[in-house]
Amino acid sequence: MDFISNIITAIGNAYPVANVVYAVIGTVLTWLAFHKTIYRILGFFFTRRFKPAKKQHKYAVVIAARNEQAVIGNLLDSIKRQDYPQELLTVFVVADNCTDNTAETARNKGAICYERFDNERKTKGFALQYLFECIERDYGTKTFEGYFVFDADNLLKEDYISRMNDSFDAGEKIITSYRNTKNFDESWIASTYALHWLRSIRQNHRARSVLRLATNIQGTGFLFSNEIVEKGWKYTSLTEDRALTADAVAQGYRISYNDAAEFYDEQPINLRVALRQRLRWSKGHLLAFAETGPYLFINIFFGKLFIKTRFTDKKEKKQKRTFKSVCLGLVESIRHRFASFDTLMQLTPLSVFNLARWLVVPVFMYACYCYVGGVESVAFFAGGTYLAKLLRFIFPFEINFSSGAGAFFTGLAMQVWLRILYRVGKYIENTLAAIYLFIMERKRIIKMPFYKKVLYTLTWPVFDIIGRYTTYVALFVKVTWKPIPHESKVTIEDIEKNKQEVTK
């Protein structure tokens, strides 16, 4: 017992220094994320606007579908309703391991459909890889200037492709768009996803597009140049969108955003399905960090010096160096390095790192510190959230406990309690984000009763809570790709009718 007591005492004595290091690390991480505050401010006021295109480009639309008979017809109908010349659009569908009539429905709606059966490689990324192999074999990927990627449950606003063409004609190579939700009010689970996509728009996409940085692709509703798939589709992990985003930024591509191009997506309404999907996302994010994080880190310091392109074999033409070209090159280098840093910060699992350092210093080492010196005048409602400050003002309780084993376990319990109090406080504060989104995006959100908006405001913070804990679980479990069922009967005509009611 003396041996254990000596170890605890040694750890407790080291706590003051460790706590300083803990605080310094926290400060550094806060400063590393400071640019996100700037994004929020810019996103409130600005987004990039694109001039009308001078040329209408030729595109392919690619859709990976697994047992999507119930919804794919509505997507294909919305593509036919586009105000863009249909002769410049070719729709490709890969019916991936389907056991229903997805392929037949797609062909009846005019799409070119390939069927794929592979029980080993089941991710959406593998389905897209197969589809691009078929396109290269039968048409040639260079036949089309750009490729749209959609999920079978999506619906497109009638001017969607025209607006995205504005961005493409402006020289952008990869563009994402405004992701709205067609079943926003179907359940509180669907609403958390819907608000998440709107938050991404306001806090990430809008500002990054203005600053000509690289925002992140989010699964569907994006367009890229044919040069991205000149060597085929390489992104077959659990989250192919994150892998493409990280790799594109590492190669120097910027990923733009078009706020005027709007599409609709169906969100899960079942908690079990949502948890399964979020676990897959978390695992995919961890894999993307492991695979591309080192490249992004190198880019921050060395630019593209040690990065070989993975997309094409094209060599940049040597141009005569002028003062203007040198200045433009310097600006591009700064942009690329900061975009690499920004994307690395998105991929880095900070929640895992923060949990680990919290368990080591504030929990275990603090408990050892209490074992040595006891618990003296510790506020029961300590913390920096508005909730903690209010409770501390109303109930100025303090805890005192003499040194020893009792103080050790009291210290442990106090840190866990304060963590819970902190999270509850952040939960309440985060509901303000939902209020902000409902106000700012009121003209684009489908019509719903006021009581549902109140309910969804209160349940919205659950989205981030689920994401945090699925990330912890994803560290230790094997995750396989499983399809998300889509059954919504909502059509683009239904949404347009709903929008008309909102604007009255």
Please name the defining characteristics of this protein.
eight-stranded mixed beta sheet; 10 strands; two-stranded antiparallel ribbon; 55% helix; 504 residues; alpha/beta
What's the structural blueprint in terms of helices and strands?
Blueprint: H1 2-32, H2 34-45, E1 59-65, H3 72-80, E2 89-96, H4 102-108, E3 112-116, H5 124-138, E4 146-151, E5 155-156, H6 160-169, E6 174-181, H7 188-210, E7 222-225, H8 240-250, E8 255-265, H9 271-302, H10 323-347, H11 350-373, E9 375-379, H12 386-394, E10 398-401, H13 405-440, H14 450-459, H15 462-474, H16 492-503
Parallel strand pairs: 1-2, 1-4, 2-3, 6-8
Antiparallel strand pairs: 4-7, 5-8, 6-7, 9-10
Helix pairs in contact: 1-11, 2-7, 7-13, 7-14, 8-9, 8-10, 9-10, 9-15, 11-13, 13-14
Q: Give the uncertain stretches in residue-range form.
A: 312-316
Shape: globular
Mean pLDDT: 90
**Structural class, please?**
alpha/beta
Helix content: 55-70%
In total, the number of strands is 10
Cα Rg = 26 Å
Gap from first CA to last CA: 76 Å
Strand order of the largest sheet: 3-2-1-4-7-6-8-5
Order of helices and strands: HHEHEHEHEEHEHEHEHHHEHEHHHH
The largest sheet is:
8 strands, mixed
β content, as a range? 5-15%
* Total helical elements: 16
